[in-house]
Protein 1
Amino acid sequence: MTDLGHAAAGGVHANSVVALVGDLGAGKTHWTKGMVAALGCQLDVTSPTFSLVHEYRGGRLDVFHFDFYRLESAADVLALGWDEYLEAGGLVIVEWADKFPELLPPDAVWLHFSVAADASRTVARLA
């Protein structure tokens, strides 16, 4: 998954939003690790499940990595400064984005992560 995230980095630009959906353990955070590394940030990428958002600065783009899993409402997301992050000129990556799809901009790229019976993982772009 990290290789796929790394490969996708060439297609992101300032104010890009990538929405990640899929079950626990499907590879969303590993994909993000590859993306952040490819953008030149040397920080260790971890799941923001409990902190809700991590910031990775120092690469070609600042990366704002959200996890909506533990949030109960769109108001909770907005209280984190969601609008400010969207306007900050970086890359916004959102795990569990399907919890509040109405908050994502229309041009967000949606990716679906899945785990097959043989434990292999796949990622597919959603239309």
Note: The chain has a mean pLDDT of 93.
Protein 2
Amino acid sequence: MVTVERVWEALGEIPDPEIPAVSLVDLGVVRAVTVEGARVRVEFTPTFLGCPAVDVMREQMAERINELGAEAEIDLAAEGWSSDRITPEGRRKLEESGFAPPAPGAAPTTLLQLQEIVSRCPYCGSEDTRLENLFGPTPCRSIRYCASCRQPFEQFKTI
């Protein structure tokens, strides 16, 4: 019999298509899981509306649920994603992978705040960093540069 806990565990094994170091659950895109008999409904929210990985995420979740012996129904949530949805484990994994996660509970950032924000380098821990490019590979990330270790790194924007 499929349980909510087993579905969450299975979804927690699916790597994010763009950042494989974190799972869909770590990133906080999975909002809710309900089980009714052999039917599992998952509600999820991509990190931004135009995310090109929505179909990939939907297919991966359905495949995992089917492997559990259940029928999957994967729906987009009406609510938008927030960087506060990243789990503590997800923040740790992001940092270990060279990404600077946003501070939990922080207010959304403006362009001026992004330029002035003090971001700790995920490689050396220095706070001597600066904004290099407002837009990274996706709209939810920017590129920063560490003056201490001379490494560029991606900073998740607070959304």
Note: The chain has a mean pLDDT of 89.
Protein 3
Amino acid sequence: MSKSNSVQREVTRGEILRQLAEAFPSWLTRRSLLNLLDLAGYSVLEEDMDFHLEYLRAKRLLEFQIHDGGVGKPKVIAIIRITADGIDLLDGRKAGDPGVRI
């Protein structure tokens, strides 16, 4: 993978988090997220979306629910939401920073 391709993937994941943060605390459907990304100029292929969502979930930056497609059909990521850790990352907070000012 080239460095420019790697950077583009990181930028796309950042935009995924930004779109989810705008909707927080609501969940977005996978299709809604894909449409929002497309409107923002980040067209993402279905198979690339799965990679990005799995990666971000492994980093605890988002969560999603999987729906069983039924007999003979694959399971699919149905709804997605950013986590507090994801919002903290967007806000530039370090791990352990409570994100509250008194």
Note: The longest helix spans residues 3-23.
